[in-house]
Write a structure and sequence with these properties.
Elements: H1 2-16, H2 36-47, H3 59-62, E1 81-82, E2 89-90, E3 117-118, E4 124-126, E5 134-135, H4 149-153, H5 161-165, H6 172-178, H7 188-197, H8 200-208, H9 216-230, H10 237-244, H11 250-259, E6 279-280, H12 305-309, E7 318-319, H13 341-349, H14 351-356, H15 380-388, H16 399-410, H17 415-419
Antiparallel strand pairs: 1-2, 3-4, 4-5, 6-7
Helix pairs in contact: 1-11, 2-9, 6-7, 11-16
Length: about 425
């Protein structure tokens, strides 16, 4: 009894020390619901390599439940690799052409209604001025209405040469993408939809849901239904504390007070899912092939949100990630620069020091790091530009306070969600082999 009272008292003291209010508890109303038939259909599609150009990689390859719904690597090997996570290697028959330039983001809770912006740079987002209310990248506008940004974003990795479609000449999907044929009856999306419709187990299940003329948007909506349901993470110790006052451990309560107070984490990591859905420049060390087409900057640069908006003030800004299950989703940052949660936390306390003193061994790169991976870090002018864009203020915390913050972040873990509600199917309708740990 004394221990319980002590925990409650510590929780009370922690709450009185907070500068920002706690969010409201998450409820079922925060998520859309879907028929189980659609969820199960989405599960099979999520794990089925049939959606890739060369039929050799699935959504689950880079977003696997056993790897925190990501792949556990800083930058992935996408199309042309074999295996999962740190075991993924380039195949001899179909060697990848490049590393994926950004970290594969975790999928926890991104199906919640408030998630209306997708990708590290927000290139898919709800917008009243966009076609069908969702802004897509140039050349990728929607052909039909979509219910969510999550469903819309599912239509993009399947068009990426290095992620899923493969290179021109390797298959009909990749060749269509290379030729700029995305839309219409001979476009890449139609080719993939026809593939799925040609498999009786898929065709009949879509027909049972009232879908007769299968379109890529039907496939994307099934994927979104599965992701929303499977990776909902809303039963952590923090959730139970918000719902019914179940006490946090003393260190977790102290960390919560720091998170919503002195440490100022909630300035950006606000709301029920610890994200403001905004974009911020925090001086993340840049490495890998980069993602730039602006001739004023090197190819290995990554301008983040600025590449989407073209606004200089947005250069080097990236979307604030949700912190739900953050203890399970390493490595961290838009390019997975930090393999340890404590290291990315310390970077936030002094971003300039984190940038200039970055330990390159922290990068988890398939096949090992190469000198060319760190060209951006060796470019003095690029480093100055990244540093000049930093917009978060330094925070002074003791080692003990950092440990308490880490305890609170651990209290955001929903252990059941980490396993997935349904798990992977035993096999997929295409008959293709699935990736496994």
């Amino acid at each position: 009894m004394r221990g319980a009272l002590t925990a409650v008292f510590i929780g009370f003291l922690a709450q009185t020390a907070m500068a920002d209010p706690l969010p409201a508890p998450v409820t079922d109303a925060d998520f859309p619901s879907f028929p189980m038939e659609q969820i199960l259909l989405g599960r099979d599609l999520f794990f089925d390599p049939i959606l890739s150009g060369n039929r050799n990689i699935a959504c689950a390859t880079c977003h696997h439940p056993t790897l925190g719904t990501s792949d556990g690597m800083s930058l992935s090997i996408g199309e042309g690799g074999l295996g999962l996570g740190s075991r993924r290697i380039a195949s001899e028959d179909n060697r990848p052409h490049a590393r994926i330039p950004r970290n594969a983001p975790a999928l926890f809770n991104i199906g919640a209604r408030e998630f209306t912006v997708m990708f590290h740079d927000g290139r898919v987002e709800r917008s009243e001025s966009a076609m069908f209310g969702i802004r897509m990248p140039e050349g990728r506008t929607l052909e039909k209405p979509m219910p969510s940004a999550l469903a819309a974003q599912a239509m993009l990795p399947i068009l990426s040469a290095d992620e899923m479609s493969g290179q021109a000449g390797e298959n009909d999907v990749a060749s269509a993408v290379d030729a700029g044929r995305i839309h219409g009856s001979d476009g890449a999306w139609a080719i993939l939809a026809a593939r799925i419709a040609a498999i009786p187990a898929y065709r009949d299940r879509f027909a049972a849901q009232g879908v007769q003329d299968l379109h890529i948007t039907d496939i994307a909506q099934a994927l979104a239904a599965f992701i929303t349901t499977e990776f909902r993470a809303t039963d952590s110790p923090f959730d139970r504390y918000l719902r019914d006052g179940t006490p946090l451990l003393p260190a977790q309560a102290a960390g919560m007070a720091l998170f919503y107070g002195k440490a100022r984490c909630s300035t950006c990591h606000s709301g029920p899912f610890q994200t403001d859905h905004g974009f911020h420049a925090i001086g993340m060390p840049q490495f890998g092939p980069g993602k730039n087409t602006d001739s004023a900057y090197a190819r290995y640069a990554d301008l983040g949100r600025g590449k989407v908006t073209g606004v200089p003030a947005d250069f080097y800004r990236f979307r604030t990630p949700s912190l739900r299950n953050v203890a399970l989703t390493a490595p961290y940052g838009h390019n997975g620069a930090y393999a340890r949660l404590e290291d990315i936390l310390r970077h936030h306390l002094d971003a300039l020091a984190g940038l200039t003193g970055y330990d390159r061994s922290a990068a988890l790169l398939p096949g090992g790091a190469q000198q060319e991976d760190f060209t951006a870090l060796d470019d003095t002018e690029e480093m100055i530009r990244i540093a000049a864009a930093i917009e978060i203020r330094d925070v002074a915390l003791t080692g003990g306070e950092i440990a308490e913050l880490l305890s609170f972040l651990d209290a955001l873990t929903d252990a059941r969600a980490a396993q997935g509600a349904l798990g992977a199917p035993g096999a997929v309708p295409s008959g293709l082999p699935m990736d496994s740990q």
